């Protein structure tokens, strides 16, 4: 099985930190040398391991932002 390679192009935010030290992050990541995408997933404290996550292109990220803003504003 081929090893998956990634490069964190831009660190955007740590969303949370668990008791184990794993962090849930949103970053701009290039997977296997491809165009960077927005990525939400958990990482071990030294980033040697990462959990399952979701990648979004710019249009998908914008749609998610719009949907979250609408949802969060409706809670007022």
UniProtKB/TrEMBL annotation:
Domain of life the protein comes from: Bacteria
GO biological process, one term: regulation of DNA-templated transcription
Residue ranges occupied by any Transcriptional coactivator p15 (PC4) C-terminal domain in the UniProt entry: 22-67
GO MF annotations in UniProt: DNA binding
Pfam families the UniProt entry points to: PC4 (PF02229)
Xref: Gene3D superfamilies: 2.30.31.70
Name assigned to this protein: Transcriptional coactivator p15 (PC4) C-terminal domain-containing protein
Organism of provenance: Acetivibrio ethanolgignens
């Amino acid at each position: 099985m081929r090893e998956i390679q990634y490069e964190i192009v831009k660190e955007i935010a740590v969303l949370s930190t668990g008791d184990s030290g794993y962090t849930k992050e949103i970053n701009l990541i290039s997977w296997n040398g491809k165009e960077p995408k927005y990525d939400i997933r958990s990482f071990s404290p030294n980033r040697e391991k990462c959990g399952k996550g979701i990648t979004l292109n710019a249009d998908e990220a914008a749609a998610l932002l719009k949907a979250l803003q609408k949802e969060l504003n409706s809670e007022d």
